[in-house]
Specification:
It is a single chain. The protein is an alpha+beta fold. It has a domain at about 25-210. The protein has helices at about 45-50, 65-70, 170-175, 200-210, 215-220, and strands spanning about 10-15, 20-25, 30-35, 70-75, 85, 95, 100-105, 110-115, 120, 125-130, 145-150, 155-160, 185-190, 195-200, 290-295, 295-300. The strands form four sheets. Strands 3, 7, 8, 9, 12, 13 and 14 form a seven-stranded mixed sheet that branches. Strands 4, 5, 6, 10 and 11 form a five-stranded antiparallel sheet that branches. It has a two-stranded antiparallel ribbon with strand order 1-2. Strand 13 and strand 14 form a beta hairpin.
Amino acid sequence: MTGPNQAPIGTMMCGPNMPTQVAQCMTRKVSFTFYCAPRDDLDDNQIYHGAYDTDVTHRGVTDSAPYLTGMPYVLVDADTHAVIYPYNSAEGRTATFPANVSMNTLQDGQRFRHSLPPINIPDHVTRIALHMANDAYLSHRNFQLFAWTVPDAAHSKVHVYEVRSDLQGRFAERNQLGTPPAENTLAVKPGTADEYHGYLNGDVWLSISHEFTDDEITRLCPPETLSRALLPGQHPVAPQDTAGNAIAPVPPAAAPGMQAVQLNQQTYAGPITGVAHPPLPVPQPHPQTPPQAAGNTQSLPVD
């Protein structure tokens, strides 16, 4: 038995004087290893110092390793969008990045790597892609990361290097990786068999990052965390509870020495959805009674 475009990997004898039959292993595996960007501000980052010497104005926010452990991801069929991994993806389940391991072999100081488990690729799947971070959730999945035709090999290993785009060419040269592949693509890793590599830079991270809508913010965030300025012509809409009833805001406590102001129930300034809203009255302070003096003691009215 043979699969399409797959070379046989062994033979099987069925019995005495029986013809030899070809046996084919149909399982293809793919594994991904992510190499987190190192810090720019450490003396052992030779690639950064080779580009900018001691000029600190080019330093960026790197060292993402502490934040990737536990990051959600899914592997999908790039053509049908069906989830391949995790194998049980019911109800939008995702897999998560494992803990990182320290390494120091890429010419730019200490890095941390996250190695995802080998994933079985069904025989009918031609291309695969990743969704990760908040783009991994079922309601998002808008950006396919490294959509790629799976080779006919028993185990293909993909190396993803998180690198600043301005240092990408220097990183490839120092690590003998050849010309960097186009953004969000994979290329054969020079000098290896069945190994590939690609780059994860800031532009790709931006594409992965889901931009939350106002409706999503209202649904996901507790009411007390929602506050934003209104733009001209926009009207605030109060959040709702699970029964669809408006949740009234809690007026803040008055600072010492300040008179408390009773907020009108329509002055909530939460996410903007564009829904028409009647004009809002301006909050009015409580009427104040002049203080009464008696000898050396002054009495103040308290609400």
